[in-house]
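WARN retry 2 of 3 for item q-0093 after timeout on previous attempt; input resubmitted unchanged.
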Amino acid sequence: MHWFTITFLSFVAASVMVRLWLSQRQAKHIRAHYAEVPAAFADKISLEDHHRAADYSCAKIGVGRISLAWETLWLLLWTIGGGINLIDQWWLDFEYSTITTGIAVIFSLTLVSSILNLPFSLYHTFVIEERFGFNQTTWRTWLLDLIKTAFLVVLLGVPLVSAILWLMNQAGANWWIYAWLLWMGFTLIMIWAYPAFIAPLFNKFSPLEDAALRTRIENLLERCGFHSRGVFVVDGSRRSSHGNAYFTGFGRNKRIVFFDTLLESLSEDEVEAVLAHELGHFKRNHIKKSLLLSSVISLLGFAILAWLMSSDWFYSSLGVQTASTHAALILFMMIMPVFTYFISPLFSALSRKHEFEADEFAHSNSDYRALISALVNLYRDNASTLTPDPIHSMFYDSHPPAMIRIDHLETIAAGSSG
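OK item q-0093 returned
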């Protein structure tokens, strides 16, 4: 057995064991605190809501374990099991051009993988989310979303993948630099186009009609020096009762977006505080920093792919007989999550740092007590557990746990008042 095959299998086994260990810790920690609401939240969240959040989290953990086993099985079947090679050889027999063959193989695998994962998507939406009172998605909406997504994948994905494969075949030794520039250009265009052209295909965006709240928000935006295309309300209740808020786009295409479910559950003070938090991400340049980090990682990824692509052992050790640019791209995209899993805590830590900074900005530009109240309401309404396992949280949580986040806000407030 080739050394890279052994390395790959070792990382697969290690990542699966760590994922299962973390999920076990999370479930055990949640159950250990099931009997009572944490003292800091005892007067804000009922025991019934606490139980609901615990049950919801554990239900997702259970499905996640099955999904992990399923995904790992198919990863091994696609690679060392010869699945990619089987599809690749089938398309090679047609003797199409290099680009056409590559597109056919890539999208065949994408289609089959999507079909294999459909049962988990359906179960999550129509069983788990339904059981806990979150699902608002009808079968018609779900099917239309699936069709629209497939249409966008073809419309946007075929030209992008074709261009990258062409560069890999024709642009010489430095193809990876040109491909990276193409990828970054595509990413920036998508960030710009998403709020105006893509998101409206799935949801209805309406200007905020509440005049008093709109005036209050506009005053906050003016104080913070934030200019956007407007404040919009999205009909998130068509699919789920979960609430959220975000801003999207860049340049002149920036938009502030509130879920209608969020506006229904929060007061004006709380909405202003949540928006101040979101503006904190903008004012602290978190979007730019994340984009810069993403660009560096993607450049490194293309460089590694360029090295692997020229090594025959890369293909043979992962079950592919015929070396090709599209096979290299497919294998790289499939196996990289296995190798990068163990650095995920670094990205989670960076995200949590950004959340703390955004909270600090919100404290300076709104009532911190309203933000705390809004966070409690969001944790309750979204059935987010108040008692996550610390190590599990370190690996996965992009936001600090509720108690730590609220303690941080109160510490800032005490320091500023002192």
